[in-house]
Amino acid sequence: MSSYNTFTDYELADLFKTGDRAAFTVIYQRYWKKIFVIAAKRLGDAHVAEEIVQEIFLNFWRKRHSFVITTGFQNYFAIAVKFEILDLMRKKANADAYKKEMTSSYSEADESTLRHLDLMELQQKLQLTIKSLPEKCQLVFKLKHEQGYSQKEIAEELQISEKTVEAHLSKARKTLKQSFGKLFSVIMFIYF
Questions:
Q1: What is the CATH number of the domain that holds 150?
Q2: What separation in angstroms does the CA of 147 have from each of 45, 46, 84, 105, 111?
Q3: 25-40 pLDDT tens trace
Q4: Domain residues for 18?
Q5: Contact status, residue 146 vs residue 128, Cβ threshold 8 Å
């Protein structure tokens, strides 16, 4: 298995797809901590973050035979974390709405549903706002907030200066502040 540590993501993916447990173990060791840090940072709860990461790897193993890598495991797992967190929020929102429905009148349950729809609209607006950023700015923002890269790592990855990275992040924050106003800090807390 020590030779597996030198394999690229694509080589590991090919082995993993055949059910190679050693390849899975190397992928797990290589990415577990990275995605745990992203999940814990977004959730603020290490225990829940650990459960989410374990669920991601469990699903990853279940889908091994149909798995296709396109942009590398770093991107795959960053997106998986994001969707697991959104799914968790959706389930929590649904559970909260159900509890309210069981203990309150119809109009209050209606209000809960509206809040859930508002959250979905907020998510859509966030995605549209991010997509409206210039391409390089959008890429820097996603590397920082979706994949958990540091500013130095982004600079190295894109071969630009750290000051340029900082300028792109500042532009993105300014655009989000303009778009969301008072909700900006809530957006940054929930999604990033």
A1: 1.10.10
A2: 18, 18, 14, 42, 34
A3: 999 999 999 999 988 9
A4: 1-74
A5: no
